[in-house]
Amino acid sequence: MVVTYTWVVPKLWNETIEAHRRAVRDATLDTTATLVAEHGLRSVTMSQIAEETGVGRATLYKYFPDVEAILVAWHERQVTGHVEQLAEVRDRAGDPGERLEAVLEAYALICHEHHGTELAALLHRGEHVVRAHHRLSDLISSLLAEGAETGGLRDDVAPDELAGYCLHALTAASSLPSKAAVRRLVTVTMAGLRPAG
To answer: Do the Cβ atoms of 112 and 170 come closer than 8 Å?
Structure first.
């Protein structure tokens, strides 16, 4: 008796391989960020990353060509997480003005925590940053438009222009000395968004 099997590689196997790849990638990103924080951008090598991550150098090179590529991937993951965090803040209850203020404060605090360094200068020039900036600008513009419709925010300036004002103003949070100063900056920024009179 001959038995013929008609099944293909189980989906579970593919999912296991994909989960393994994600785990290796995530471990590589996290390890590289830690090493750069400890030793500086120019001191970290692919060999160190492979050793600390526990993967072979050849395997590491299958994922990334160099340290800079790893850092860009790490930063893209961070930026995506920040935009998702801000979208969650936007989706909380409250009127448009309250939600806008919460988003602006969360954004300003992110800027404050991740102030200018050599690493930031390297990473903030990628296409992923441009995409994230557009998503953030759209998120803020929609809240501004919603607030203008209800009368709680000004309607004499286009929402996309006001979103640009907010984002530019709040980047100053990166150089402020405290979270209290960041919150004061958000208050001043919000004051510029209220209807005149």
So the answer is: no
